[in-house]
Amino acid sequence: MPSYTVTVATGSQWFAGTDDYIYLSLIGSAGCSEKHLLDKAFYNDFERGAVDSYDVTVDEELGEIQLVKIEKRKYWLHDDWYLKYITLKTPHGDYIEFPCYRWITGEGEIVLRDGRAKLARDDQIHLLKQHRRKELEARQKQYRWMEWNPGFPLSIDAKCHKDLPRDIQFDSEKGVDFVLNYSKAMENLFINRFMHMFQSSWNDFADFEKIFVKISNTISERVKNHWQEDLMFGYQFLNGCNPVLIKRCTELPQKLPVTTEMVECSLERNLSLEQEVQEGNIFIVDYELLDGIDANKTDPCTHQFLAAPICLLYKNLANKIVPIAIQLNQAPGEKNPIFLPSDAKYDWLLAKIWVRSSDFHVHQTITHLLRTHLVSEVFGIAMYRQLPAVHPIFKLLVAHVRFTIAINTKAREQLICEYGLFDKANATGGGGHVQMVQRAVQDLTYSSLCFPEAIKARGMDSTEDIPYYFYRDDGLLVWEAIQSFTSEVVGIYYEDDQVVVEDQELQDFVRDVYVYGMRGRKASGFPKSIKSREKLSEYLTVVIFTASAQHAAVNFGQYDWCSWIPNAPPTMRAPPPTAKGVVTIEQIVDTLPDRGRSCWHLGAVWALSQFQENELFLGMYPEEHFIEKPVKEAMIRFRKNLEAIVSVIAERNKNKKLPYYYLSPDRIPNSVAI
């Protein structure tokens, strides 16, 4: 009688093993086997991290094995099991791999196909077509769209983490409990004694050092020592944690009535301001999005305030970017003066602090939350709904949506919900952050997620003109490496453009993103369909780059740039000044966050800047969804390209007082998971 050797690999994460009964059935082209109990006498089967082998004898020849069915039945109590893969050695000595990488819960069962990636057109056998269809029908019942707030990109239909499908939950929910992590961060930073001291002001700037953890030779220490300087202020627009707002100014806006006379002491080329604009030396950052947003009113004992500044910047003769004019609100007028470097020291300093605070709000809510977290969740949900596990695009993308839906669900449960942690320290808490996302969604476009296009659209693409824009330089290297990799994978499975057009599952995935994620907005520029291999490669690059590199660039520098509170105040406790010559140091300190809010802010930026335990970085694919040699070779080339980029960045950073390393591939996690 024919005999098969079945090798079963159990996951190594916590609670992956099971004591339940595991049964296996083989389904072949010539027949099906009986249900076999996988069990060895006097042996603890399916322990965490174990690889167990079993001999399975069948009554008759089964032909080519098409499916493997695994059933789990209760032994004592329901015991979830994480199955990594099954390998089958046939009676003829052939090996067939069946990747799984899923949880089997309750009295569950799972039917697996072998690991070769297949498009729908490759499946001619009715049984395999049916398996493909049933998998998507089941997933579409599990992964449902929901509107969390009007106007937001749609998210997963789950009120809390435990409502999520088991396959996308965190291995340990405790590890991503925001309340626990923020409190733990404050404890680790030895600042928990201040965490309840709301309404209690600091005495002066030096007093903030009581909650500042001095780590020598770090960016955070350099920020603390140089934050008041114009050079440090300007540098952050290029290489801080929000390097996406600065634009080349091609025409001075009417709402900022700045003149050459006002700024001539800052101009170094003996040109008028208009001539400097024409020469391409003037840059602008406009926080118009914040105009009219409601400030946080959740604490009746503390008034909190927002501004919507416009900041004009200048490229000096050393090619460094420095501020030359700041207007703190949008409408010009007598009570909205334009602050200048030539003004009194504290007037100018407070104007810059207001810009830094506004930048913090846009960074947290738009650059970080909307444009990486929420967008990546849309890609993830659409992928699970429309691409079966055997589809090559599912196999390519699944590592890049790992834990994204889970972290966003936890955020909606604890962080950005009504009365959530976000309300504790942020002036945009209490609903302002929701208004901001609702506005910013209108400007969320496909081209703005295509990194080279986004850089070019802001007039920031010239390395000769703007030589110290490391976010741009490193981002382009990583984008090109990802695009080269996705092009290879697309070329393996799609022999020409027509195959792309005819791949209905792929088209449904793209359409889901457009209809539900982008809410069918034509102005978003998101494609409704994809008609060429080149466009498919670009689309996949957008998905992977957004989830990995873009998120890394705007997330993991938060402690570096925001831990010195005056450099990134999460709230301001007095309105913007309406006149010059009246600001004092005492007034600035009373405007900055109180002790309690400072501590919650510090706990947040510390916790958000930490990598996950067992983090998977870009190019690491420990789950072998692909089994074909050409794809594995493409992955090796991808990793080599990324290693070369790591070396280039490390060489550039040598001896730099302010190294830029957020886009070094060895520091870029594969997915948005924190």
Automatic annotation (TrEMBL):
CDD domains: PLAT_LOX. GO terms for molecular function: arachidonate 5-lipoxygenase activity; hydrolase activity; iron ion binding. It holds the Pfam family PLAT. Its EC number is 1.13.11.34. Residues 118-674 form the Lipoxygenase domain. It catalyses: (4Z,7Z,10Z,13Z,16Z,19Z)-docosahexaenoate + O2 = (7S)-hydroperoxy-(4Z,8E,10Z,13Z,16Z,19Z)-docosahexaenoate; (5S)-hydroperoxy-(18S)-hydroxy-(6E,8Z,11Z,14Z,16E)-eicosapentaenoate = (5S,6S)-epoxy-(18S)-hydroxy-(7E,9E,11Z,14Z,16E)-eicosapentaenoate + H2O; (18S)-hydroxy-(5Z,8Z,11Z,14Z,16E)-eicosapentaenoate + O2 = (5S)-hydroperoxy-(18S)-hydroxy-(6E,8Z,11Z,14Z,16E)-eicosapentaenoate; 18-HEPE + O2 = (5S)-hydroperoxy-18-hydroxy-(7E,9E,11Z,14Z,16E)-eicosapentaenoate. Residues 2-118 form the PLAT domain. Its cofactor is Fe cation. The record marks 103 as: Essential for stabilizing binding to COTL1. PROSITE patterns: LIPOXYGENASE_1, LIPOXYGENASE_2, LIPOXYGENASE_3, PLAT. Fe cation binds at residues 368, 373, 551, 674. Binds 1 Fe cation per subunit. It is a peripheral membrane protein. GO terms for biological process: leukotriene biosynthetic process; lipid oxidation; response to stress. GO terms for cellular component: cytosol; nuclear envelope lumen; nuclear matrix; nuclear membrane; perinuclear region of cytoplasm. Ca(2+) 1 binds at residues 17, 79-80. Keywords: Calcium, Cytoplasm, Dioxygenase, Hydrolase, Iron, Leukotriene biosynthesis, Lipid metabolism, Membrane, Metal-binding, Nucleus, Oxidoreductase, Phosphoprotein. PANTHER family: LIPOXYGENASE. This is Polyunsaturated fatty acid 5-lipoxygenase. It comes from Cricetulus griseus. The gene is Alox5.
